[in-house]
Amino acid sequence: MGTLGAMFFWGIAFVWTKIVFEYYGPFTTLLFRLIISAVILTLYAKVTRINEKVARKDWPIFLLLALLQPFCYFIGESFGLLLVTSTLASIMIGLIPVIAPVFAYLLYRERLSAVNIAGLIVSFLGLAIFTTTGSAHLEASVKGLLFLLFAVLSGIGYSLVVKGLSQRYRPLTIVRVQNTIGGLYFLPLMIGFEWEKTLSVNPPANVILNLVMLAVFGSSLAFILITVAIRDLGISRTTIFTNIIPVITAIAAYFLLGESFSERKIIGMAIIISGLFLSQYQKRKTARIIHER
User: How far apart are CA 256 and CA 213, in angstroms?
Assistant: First the structure.
């Protein structure tokens, strides 16, 4: 249930981000949500006395972790969101469980089964249908798709690094430290590119509310829940759950942003989601057999 909660928060986060982007730039949005998250988590750690210290030898790993996510991941995701719809962005991020087996093969020589390969083909076919019109004209920005692909690769790298750290630190500590470092990474970018715009903004209450929700649910609770899942279930079994993000985002975007769906997009999304599940089917079956033994 915790993993489903994380996916629910991330699915709606695409919509919250779109709303905040109407007033703040991506660097400012990311900096504010990380600062709010780090402050909340630090206060909680002190009140509950769960204030672990990071060993000196682990600081380079935490610096890498924060570089992958939130820094690289959110840059890719946020700039992608500026160029494509929130629904398409969530579907691109949903490709993580499809691409992850490829990296597993390259790094660990784990072979892809025929079912996995079929899932990859089906998913990319669905993506092609979703992002093109009947005249084969790209409906989505190629640059936006590349930014989102960068986010996907960063997310996979993050999962690999956080798996090791979760064996030595509490999820609360990992997320608190990564968001604090991530805020420091984004500070010079906000000052260099968005300082004047940020100072001139007078955001309405709903934008501030969405920013706080991004910090509390998207940058804090979701990451704590996903860190617990990666630690307890493993990377492959956890990433399966990202398949539901496009569905959550599509529903939220329809009601909150008024994004419409053509018949072609509905078919494309259905094929993508089917392919995502198909690409993970064999792994889920293997996991159940191992568990039963």
Answer: 15
